[in-house]
Each structure stands twice: as C-alpha cells, then as structure tokens.
Amino acid sequence: MPRPAAPLVLVVDDEPTICRALSIALRRAGYEPRTAESAEAAHALLRHKTADAMIVDLRIPDQRGDEFFELAAALYPHLRTATLMTTGDTSDRAFDLIHACRVPYLVKPFDLADLIAAIDRFTRRTRDASA
Could you tell me if 73 and 79 are in contact, meaning their C-beta atoms sit under 8 angstroms apart? Predict the structure, then answer.
C-alpha cells in the first residue's frame, strides 16, 4: 500500500534563511515544505497545488501577509483555520492586522518547536484521515 503524502506546508517569508530553516524543520517533522519569498511566488505555487497549512510573514515586500492570507483563504477556505502568521514587527498596527485575520501568530525570533506544534494542530485532521 503506498504511503500517504506528507501534508504540504507553504512558507511565505522574504528572508531566504528563514525559508531554509523552516523547510528543514518542517521536513524533519514529516511535512512537505514549499517556500516562497514573495506573495507573487506564493500565489503562483497555490495556482498549481493547494497547501494543507501556511506560515505567512506579515511583512513581505510585494503584499502584506494579511492581504495575501485573505486572498489565499478566499480561494482555499480551509486555510482560514490552517495558517500561522509570523512577524518581527511588534507595533500595535502589526498586531491589529494579525488579529483581524483571526489566526495564531508567533513573534520572531520564535522557537521552532512552537511552530511545529501549531502546524501539527492544523494538520491533525489531514494526518488522521490518512492513517
């Protein structure tokens, strides 16, 4: 019997080192990571394959993370409850934008274990369904 596919997690962050680090951590945790360093690249990835979960940085150069999230969730409603926002911006405005999305978030620098735990919660149904 073929092994079920690992849940796909889309990482959207303009910092290549963060994309690389999150890819390694997600792969080790049993996920199939895909990274995009811009909203445009992330939209292109989503046109070809939907993600089971997303990790989205609030501050990406070509589109704010909250705006990208709203567009992605409009196309794939399950992402509304399977997205983790990250930010290094601790301003009130940043938190207002994140809270408006009604998604959990982590402030950079964050513990990778916390990130993996959040993704595990998002994908539990996906993994349970394939077990």
Answer: yes
